[in-house]
Amino acid sequence: MALRKLTTIRNALAAITLVLAFGAGAQEQPARSQLALMGTVPLYWGEAEDMADLLNGSGTGHWARPILEAEFELVPLDYLSAEALAPHQFLLMAQPRGLSAEENVALDGWVRGGGRLLLFADPMMTGESRFAAGDRRRPQDVALLSPILAHWGLELQFDEEQVGGLKWNPAQGTSLPLNLPGSLHLLPDGACQLEAEQVIARCQLGAGEALIVADAAILDLDGPYPQAREGLSALIDSIFAENGKFAGMTRSDWAVQGKNGAIPPFLRGGPVSDLSASS
C-alpha cells in the first residue's frame, strides 16, 4: 500500500513538472523512446530529504539523469506489474529493492515478451549517501534478487576477501569503474553469456534480453568517476540499441496507425512464469 501511495505522489509531481515546463513556453522536443526507471539509486529524483526538496529542487541531483534524458523520456516506476511495464520497451533497474512474487512474474513475462532490461545488482554498495544506514531513502546496500536471477540461470556471488577501492574493468569497448564488485555464475542449464570477468551477464530470454551488471559503483551519486559517463553510455547502447525505432508507441498506437505485419515483441504480452511461488 505504501509503495502504491508513493507511486501516486511521484506521478503527481511528474505531472506538475510537465505543466510548469509547458507554461514556461518549453520548446517542443523530438519524440524520444521512453525509458522506465526503478531502483534505490536515485537516478530520477536525486537524494531529496522530503517532499519540499522534491518540489523546490533543493535535493542532490544525480549526474546520470541528464545523460539518460539526452536520449530518453524517463518514466519512474515504484512497482512492477504487467500493467505498469506494458507500455515500455526499455527498463533500467539500479540496485532495486527485493521484488515481490508478483513483480518477479511481471518482470520475467515482460522481458520474455520482448522487453530490454539493464539491471545493476550490487552485492556490496560502496557509494556515499546523505542518509544513514537503515534509512529507506538510502540506496540499498545489498542486492536481494536471488529468485529472478536464479530463474534466469544465474547466481550472484561476492568475494569478501577482495580489496576495496576503485578499479577499472575493460567492457563494452570502454572501461567500467568498479568497487567491490560481485561475480555472476551460470547455474546448470543457464543460457546467459558472461562478460567482463563475470561482472556482466547477457541473457537472451524469449523475445527479450537482459544485461546484468554485478556492481553499481558506476552510478555512485558522488561521481561521475573517470570513465563512468562513457561506461554508462556504452551499456545503454549495448542493450537499448533500437532506441527510437518505436518511440512512444503502444499496442493501441500500432493498431490505430494501421501498421502491417506482426506486432513488435515488446508490444506483445509475455508468458506467466513459475516465479509466482518465489519470495
Helix content: 25-40%
Query: What is the name of the CATH topology?
Result: Rossmann fold
Mean pLDDT score:
78
Beta percentage is 15-25%
- How many beta-strand elements? 11
How large, in whole angstroms, is the Cα Rg? 18 Å
Main sheet: strand order: 2-1-3-4-11-10-9
CATH superfamily: Class I glutamine amidotransferase (GATase) domain
Largest sheet: 7 strands, mixed
Structure class: alpha/beta
Commentary on this structure:
- This protein is an alpha/beta fold and 279 residues long.
- It is 27% helix and 20% strand.
- The protein has one domain (31-259): 3-Layer(aba) Sandwich (Rossmann fold), CATH 3.40.50.880.
- The chain contains eight helices and eleven strands.
- The strands form three sheets. The protein has a seven-stranded mixed sheet.
- It is globular and about 40 Å long.
- The two termini are 18 Å apart.
- Mean pLDDT is 78; it is low at 15-26 and 243-274.
In short:
With 279 residues, this protein is an alpha/beta fold. It has helices at 2-23, 51-56, 64-69, 82-85, 101-112, 146-151, 228-239, 251-256, and strands at 33-39, 72-76, 90-94, 116-120, 154-157, 167-171, 174-178, 183-186, 193-195, 200-205, 208-213. It is built from 8 helices and 11 strands.
